[in-house]
UniProtKB/TrEMBL annotation:
Coiled-coil regions, chain positions: none
Designated name of the protein: Vesicle transport protein
Regions crossing the membrane: 65-86, 98-117
Domain of life: Eukaryota
Location within or outside the cell: Membrane
Keyword Repeat assigned: no
One Gene Ontology cellular component: endomembrane system
Membrane topology: Multi-pass membrane protein
Swiss-Prot/TrEMBL keywords: Membrane, Transmembrane, Transmembrane helix
GO BP, sorted A to Z: vesicle-mediated transport
């Protein structure tokens, strides 16, 4: 990391502009720059995570099934509304109603499939 990025402005001003560094030193400093950014990485299944976080992120099979059926029911309701909005006077005057209902129904359908698959 350059001296100016670390907040050390005096060191950056003290180095001459035409100073050449060794290629090995440049590669080493570049590697340390990227490896320091990766040092804070914590994998998903790690001993560093508490059991509270693990319980918060996991759902039981029953909760997944309820989420799936709730999303499918909402999707069916929105698809029904979108079919009603296909009537010629409504579609001609307010097409955004159909687009919103159909888009929300599609989104709920996909969300239901994700709830069941995770």
């Amino acid at each position: 990391m350059p001296a100016w990025a670390r907040g050390n402005a005096g060191a950056a001003a003290a180095t001459p502009l035409n100073a050449q560094t060794q290629p090995a030193a440049a590669e080493e400093s570049l590697w340390s720059y990227f490896s320091s950014g990766l040092s804070g990485y914590v994998p998903l299944r790690s001993a560093d995570r508490s059991s509270e976080e693990e319980a918060f992120l996991s759902l039981s099979h029953w909760e997944r099934l309820l989420g799936f059926f709730a999303c499918m029911a909402g999707s069916a309701l929105c698809f029904t509304f979108s079919l009603f909005f296909l009537a010629p006077p409504i579609l001609a005057l307010r097409p955004h109603k159909f687009a919103l209902a159909f888009s929300l129904a599609s989104l709920l359908f996909l969300l239901g499939c994700v709830c069941c698959a995770c």
